[in-house]
């Protein structure tokens, strides 16, 4: 195969491993089917159609693919949740509602390599036995929706989609469904409600997976854009070769989206766990901006818990515990979880020492207050309270006890709502208060400290009073 | 006054409905998008029209319109600007970008609120609102003008964007 050339200035970093993003910002590449076919496009579909659907599922399971949307749940296992004696239609939905702040990978796949997604989607539909698939795309990608619709039309003409896919007898129809600007539609049951034409209120669990009961109360599989693309490559390479990419239990590649205070923000596709946070920030992203120091990192989309630059983490290495710093954390699902945060959607937001935590937290709290669907009281009221309190802190009108109230509101949302938005909106507050309590208290007015507060806050307020007088 | 839906729009609407063989109701969002694209916003008449088309009570359509930030119930400017407000873009200066846009277009945002987030210029040429994360975090600040996406919008780029609106 000819060597891949990239647009000047967009060449991959040496530590990258381009697979999903092989064609992103590539010279001479376009979204047409012709270009995609020239590089062996839809060959994997033909290969998969010769396998039994169950064999495709097993391959994906054996490859160890974990969902790239946020939760990191094994894709093949999720597929297996369709009840074995099911007689209802099965639906496949591609979650292209990319809206987790800090994440922008799906944008590139959809806008620059739509056929890769569609091929992965068709293979996955075949594997789970779906004959109708929807791509639920966020409203803010109007051009992306048009590109996908044109690509689907091209694929339909070539019989990759339709009544008899490539003469195999497998039938599949694919449609694009546009959202309307609501973050909650990224939650899979909220997405399904939205696709049913309703307000996207997430559904009560159990059933935990829409594979049991989803769209129109039929078994439904919801997969992220990047996850579906990986399926194509698993069929291409085989589970064993794919499983050698990355690290055990954290296989394959994944796209990290870096934003914030680094020299070169952008997307970086790495083998999962083969690059550390330090390598990502210092080597790949060119380090911090001139004269600035690293303060903290939000490692997996805005909902993930913040990590301090000077924090120490204990990871298991075999039977032994090893203590490492932020820069030594391998960028994979399990390591980031062991560090008390998560790999989430792959959105890495880097903060330098010029950023005030109160300002950062207030920005995120404003987001969550706006995006809470309002179904559960703790989240609807709590997310707005958290915003109001950080509004006060940012404007200098808060009292030290407000920091305690803020923390208690967060813990009264976490775990008390129908969907994971409750955790998503409370984790930033929980982590930032726990790790930057002094700084937050420092932004309050010590003279307002007139009520018994927690021991930590009392101490910090005392220090503040001493400072003020 | 009943809503006048031109024949070609209705044809497109009828085609869209076929994408949902299992449920007419599923076509609520796509139909509202088509309405908004054509009329610029979703009027009460449009709500009733969509409801009748899909054999639903109008409230089933209205509750969707009022929930999603992507649907609006008032006319916007000819060029509708959405500036990303969320963290990465804010760090890259999206608040300043918003101020500059308002200054250059003469838009007064003092009356915007959670339920009425859009401000329109007096001549109706421009309207603006803050949007939550537009998924362009690596190239902030980003904005959209109607359906077009713009990244790394500094002062110069902003001038260029506005010039292209003329």
Strand content of chain A: 5-15%
The CATH topology of the largest domain in chain A is what? Rossmann fold
How can the largest sheet of chain A be summarized?
5 strands, mixed
> What's the alpha carbon Rg of chain A, rounded to whole Å?
23 Å
Give the mean pLDDT of chain A: 95
Q: Helix content range of the residues of chain A, please?
A: 40-55%
- Overall spatial form of chain A: globular
Biggest interface, residues from each chain: A-B, 55 and 43 residues
Question: Architecture of the largest domain in chain B, according to CATH?
Answer: 3-Layer(aba) Sandwich
Class by helix and strand content of chain B?
alpha+beta
How do the helices and strands line up, and which of them pair or pack?
The complex is a heterodimer of chains A (469) and B (166).
Chain A: H1 33-38, H2 43-49, H3 53-63, H4 75-79, E1 90-96, H5 105-112, H6 114-128, E2 130-137, H7 142-157, E3 173-178, H8 188-195, E4 220-224, H9 225-237, H10 239-244, E5 246-247, E6 250-251, E7 253-260, E8 266-271, H11 277-284, E9 294-298, E10 307-308, E11 312-317, E12 320-325, H12 333-338, E13 347-352, H13 357-371, H14 377-395, H15 400-411, H16 421-435, H17 437-442, H18 455-468
Parallel strand pairs in A: 1-2, 1-4, 2-3, 7-13
Antiparallel strand pairs in A: 5-6, 7-8, 9-10, 9-13, 11-12
Helix pairs in contact in A: 2-6, 2-9, 3-6, 5-6, 6-9, 13-14, 13-16, 14-15, 14-16, 15-16, 15-18
Chain B: H1 7-17, H2 28-39, H3 44-53, H4 58-67, E1 79-84, H5 87-91, H6 94-105, E2 119-120, E3 126-131, E4 143-145, E5 148-150, H7 155-163
Parallel strand pairs in B: 1-3
Antiparallel strand pairs in B: 1-4, 2-3, 4-5
Helix pairs in contact in B: 1-2, 2-3, 3-4
């Amino acid at each position: 195969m000819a060597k891949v050339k990239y647009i000047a200035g967009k060449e991959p970093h040496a530590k990258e491993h381009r697979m999903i993003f092989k064609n992103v910002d590539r010279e001479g590449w376009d979204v047409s089917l012709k270009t995609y076919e020239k590089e062996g496009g839809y060959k994997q579909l033909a290969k998969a159609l010769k396998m039994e659907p169950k064999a495709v599922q097993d391959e994906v399971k054996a490859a160890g693919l974990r969902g790239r949307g946020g939760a990191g749940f094994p894709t093949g296992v999720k597929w297996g949740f369709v009840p074995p004696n099911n007689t209802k239609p099965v639906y496949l939905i591609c979650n292209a509602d990319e809206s987790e702040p800090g994440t922008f990978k799906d944008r590139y796949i959809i806008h620059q390599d739509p056929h890769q997604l569609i091929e992965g989607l068709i293979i996955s539909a075949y594997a789970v036995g779906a004959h109708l698939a929807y791509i639920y795309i966020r409203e803010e990608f109007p051009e992306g929706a048009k590109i996908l619709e044109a690509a689907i039309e091209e694929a339909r003409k070539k019989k990759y989609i339709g009544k008899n896919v490539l003469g195999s007898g497998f039938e599949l129809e694919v449609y694009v469904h546009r959202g309307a600007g609501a973050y909650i539609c990224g939650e899979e049951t909220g997405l399904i409600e939205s696709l049913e034409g309703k307000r996207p209120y997430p559904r009560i669990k159990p059933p935990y997976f829409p594979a049991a009961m989803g769209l129109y109360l039929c078994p439904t599989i919801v997969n992220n854009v990047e996850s579906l693309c990986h399926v194509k490559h698993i069929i291409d390479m085989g589970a064993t070769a794919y499983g050698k990419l990355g690290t055990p239990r954290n296989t394959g590649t994944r796209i990290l989206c870096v934003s914030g205070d680094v020299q070169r923000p952008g997307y970086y596709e790495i083998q999962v766990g083969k690059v550390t946070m330090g390598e990502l920030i210092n080597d790949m992203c060119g380090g911090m901006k001139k004269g600035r120091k690293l303060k903290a990192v939000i490692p997996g989309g805005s909902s993930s818990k913040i990590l301090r630059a000077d924090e120490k983490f204990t990871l298991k290495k075999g039977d032994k515990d090893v203590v490492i710093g932020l820069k030594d954390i391998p960028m994979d699902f399990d390591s980031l979880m062991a560090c008390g945060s998560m790999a989430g959607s792959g959105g890495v937001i880097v903060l330098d020492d010029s950023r005030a935590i109160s300002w950062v937290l207030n920005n995120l709290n404003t987001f969550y207050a706006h995006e809470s669907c309002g179904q559960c009281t703790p989240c609807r009221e709590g997310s707005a309270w958290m915003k109001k309190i950080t509004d006060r802190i940012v404007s200098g009108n808060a009292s030290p006890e407000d920091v305690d109230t803020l923390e208690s509101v967060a813990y009264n949302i976490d775990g008390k709502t129908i969907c994971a938005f409750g955790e998503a909106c409370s984790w930033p507050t929980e982590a930032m208060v726990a790790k930057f309590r002094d700084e937050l208290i420092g932004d309050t007015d010590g003279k307002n400290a007139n009520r018994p507060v927690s021991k930590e806050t009392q101490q910090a307020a005392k220090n503040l009073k001493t400072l003020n007088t | 006054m009943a809503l006048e839906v031109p024949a070609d729009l209705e044809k497109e609407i009828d085609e869209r409905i076929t994408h949902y063989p299992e449920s007419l109701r599923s076509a609520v969002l796509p139909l509202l998008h088509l309405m908004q694209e054509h009329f610029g916003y979703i009027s009460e008449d449009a709500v009733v029209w969509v409801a009748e088309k899909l054999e639903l009570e109008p409230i089933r359509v209205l509750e969707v319109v009022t929930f999603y930030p992507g649907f609006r119930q008032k006319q916007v400017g000819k060029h509708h600007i959405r500036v990303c407000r969320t963290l990465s873009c804010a760090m890259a200066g999206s608040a300043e970008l918003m101020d500059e846009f308002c200054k250059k277009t003469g838009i007064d945002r003092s009356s915007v609120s959670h339920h009425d987030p859009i401000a329109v210029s007096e001549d109706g040429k421009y309207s603006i609102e803050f949007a939550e994360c537009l998924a362009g975090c690596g190239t902030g600040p980003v904005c959209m003008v109607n359906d077009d996406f713009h990244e790394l919008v500094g002062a110069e780029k902003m001038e260029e964007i506005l010039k292209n609106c003329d």
